[in-house]
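Lay summary. Proteins are chains of building blocks that fold into shapes, and those shapes determine what they do. In this project we predict the shape from the chain. Here is one chain we studied, written as its sequence of building blocks.
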Amino acid sequence: VGYKDIRCVESGGPEPGVGCAGRGVITSINFLEENGAYEDIDYVSYDVLGDVVCGGFAMPIRENKAQ
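And here is the predicted shape, written in a compact code that computers can read:
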């Protein structure tokens, strides 16, 4: 918890050429949910890679975890 109680988390993905980074995004979101990271907060913002090299980046939208 940082300035004005802002919570910040950074997560990585697989090594380049080894796996789908989009899968890492949904895995991270699921981990945060399971550990209560979304409880008692007002706003959530994600900054993810904009390249669509695989379908994995659409997974959070398909699973209603992002809009």
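What the prediction tells us: The chain has one domain: 3-62.
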